[in-house]
């Protein structure tokens, strides 16, 4: 979870720099440009937790300690 959070933070940080410095977006336009990605993240997380996870179950990475 820590690595995933760090990766997402890095993507948002550098994508913000790219949109504002390179493409010349304003801060408001940059925030609006993030909305489709946020909607995709929220909808995929909701789909995963309500429909796919109950069917497949969670994956156990480490053997159970006795």
Describe the structure concisely for a colleague.
The chain has 66 residues and is mainly alpha-helical. Helices cover 77% and strands 0% of the residues.
Supply the key terms:
single chain; mainly alpha; 2 helices; 66 residues
Helices and strands, with pairings:
Layout: H1 2-22, H2 27-56
Describe the structure.
By secondary structure, the chain is mainly α.
Q: What is the overall shape?
A: elongated
List low-confidence stretches: none
Oligomer: single chain
Secondary structure class reads mainly alpha
Radius of gyration of CA atoms, rounded to a whole number: 17 Å
**Number of helical segments?**
2
- In percent terms, what proportion of residues is strand? under 5%
């Amino acid at each position: 979870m820590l690595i995933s959070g760090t990766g997402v933070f890095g993507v948002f940080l550098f994508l913000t720099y790219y949109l504002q410095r390179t493409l010349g977006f304003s801060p408001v336009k940059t925030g609006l440009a993030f909305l489709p990605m946020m909607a995709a993240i929220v909808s995929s997380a909701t789909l995963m937790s309500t429909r796919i996870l109950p069917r497949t179950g969670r994956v156990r990475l480490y053997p159970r300690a006795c």
